[in-house]
Amino acid sequence: CGRMSDVKVEDKIQEETAKIEQPTFKTLHGILLLEAIFDNWENIINFQAQPDDVLIASYPKAGTTWIQEIVDMIYNQGDAEKCKRAPTHFRIPFLEMVSFPNVPSGLELLSKMASPRVIKTHLPFRLVPKSFWERNCKVGPCVKRTSQSLSSFRGRADKSSS
Length: 162
Prior knowledge:
By secondary structure, the protein is α/β, with parallel strands linked by helices. It has two domains: 1-39, no CATH class; 48-155, 3-Layer(aba) Sandwich (Rossmann fold). Helix content is 46%, strand content 14%. The protein has nine helices and five strands; from the N terminus they run αββααβααααβαβα. The protein has a three-stranded parallel β-sheet with strand order 4-3-5, covered by helices on one side. The longest helix has 18 residues, at 2-19. It comes from Latimeria chalumnae. One of its GO terms (molecular function) is sulfotransferase activity. It holds the Pfam family Sulfotransfer_1.
C-alpha cells in the first residue's frame, strides 16, 4: 500500500516539475544572460549611479549575501534592528534583477532609494553601467575560490532536485 502512494507522489512531483518554465538565455558581448535581463538591457546599461553608491559585485554563490549583510550593518552602525527593516533584496537591490509578481525590479527599487545606496550585481565588470566608473563609485568585489563556488552551485542544485 505504501509503495502505491510513493508512486503517486513521484508522479505528482514529475507532473509539477514539468510545469516549471525553464529559463531562456541570450548572449550579450559574449556573456550569457537571462533573456529577461537581456530584454531590459537598455534600462540596465543606462542606469545612473550616484557618487556615493557602493556596488557589491560578485559571481553567484560567492558569499554575496554575507557581504550585503555586513555592509548594511556598517551603514547602520551595527544596529541589528535597523538591518531587519526589510528583506535583503529590498535593502540592497539587485541591479539587473527583473520584477516578479509583488517584487519590483532592482531598477525600480533603486529609483526610489535615497543616497547612499548599496547595490548588488552579478554582472561581469565589463557589463557594469559606465556611470559607476564615471562617478568613481566604491566597488566591493566579492570573490571565492572557483572550486568553492562550484561546490555551492552543486549543493544548491542537489537541494533543488530532491
